[in-house]
Amino acid sequence: MESTLIIHGAAGRMGKRLIALALESGFWKLVGAVDHPEHPDIGKDAGLLAGCGNTGVVLSGRLEKKADVLIDFSLPSAAGDTIAFCQKTKTALVMGTTGLADAHFDLLQKAGRTIPIVQATNMSLGMNLLFSLVGRVAKSLGEDYDIEIVEAHHRHKKDAPSGSALSLAQSICEQTGRKYPDVLVHGREGKEALRQKGTIGMHAIRAGDIVGQHSVIYSTQGETVTLSHSAHSRDTFARGALSAARWLLGKAPGLYSMQDVLGLR
């Protein structure tokens, strides 16, 4: 029996790939495709928009039907309504939208008492392995190593730095006792821009159609160690989100991460 799925942000690049891969899997039945109510494609078949044929599910401007799982890759401005809808309908939630505010995380924590939720800034296996490594490496190398994070994404990405870059910084701060986000230095300019000991440099590149690149540089006198991850396709994130959605089926209420999904903690 197919499990039912709603995609929020269905008209976006990620949303379209989620629809295509979900239908391709044969495991999911698409019952809802939602985007901004003023999107020009509202009313069109979601499958046709995703390039995989007519599905009978049209792109809607609002959440209406319940499902087993909802995957959200929309905008932060829609997150509150999405969380409330999932709570009301007892729909499990995969929250992949980045740029969320503290208030959104508070809502996710509260919602996790009644429904199962996976929230992550990045859904790829390799990136989540990197999340688990960067803090331990920083702790092992010690305070003499300067740390810089460089991330690159396509020209259309709105938030900077990326949610994944911030997660990398958080992991480092947790393992090394640094105070997040106070230690972050976002770019450098001016005549008095010397590096301050214990800070973490954060640099965002926006260019072309770069899917996603993240590097953490540890450097001291005499050597440099770099840990990096490159995503070659949005399918990496879409497949991870679908794996998280499948993992959530039958799970107890709680706020989970991709670390839980992948058994990395």
Distinctive features:
seven-stranded parallel β-sheet, Dihydrodipicolinate Reductase, domain 2, five-stranded mixed β-sheet, alpha/beta, 265 residues
Polypeptide structure, described:
With 265 residues, the protein is an alpha/beta fold. It has 2 domains: 3-119 and 234-261, NAD(P)-binding Rossmann-like Domain (Rossmann fold, 3-Layer(aba) Sandwich), CATH 3.40.50.720; 125-231, Dihydrodipicolinate Reductase, domain 2. The chain has 8 helices and 12 strands. Strand 5 (92-95), helix 4 and strand 6 (116-119) form a beta-alpha-beta unit. 39% of the residues are buried. The mean pLDDT is 96.
**Which range does the strand content fall in?**
15-25%
Gross CATH architecture of the largest domain: 3-Layer(aba) Sandwich
Instruction: Give the fraction of residues assigned to helices.
Output: 25-40%
CATH class membership of the largest domain = Alpha Beta
In N-to-C order, the SSE pattern is EHEHEEHEHEHEHEEEEHEH
- Please identify which CATH superfamily of the largest domain we are dealing with: NAD(P)-binding Rossmann-like Domain
User: Roughly how many Å apart are the termini?
Assistant: 31 Å
SS elements, strand count: 12
How many individual domains? 2
Which structural class matches the secondary elements? alpha/beta
What's the overall geometry?
Answer: elongated
Unreliably modeled segments: none
Strand ordering within the main sheet: 3-2-1-4-5-6-12
- The Rg value, from CA coordinates, equals 19 Å
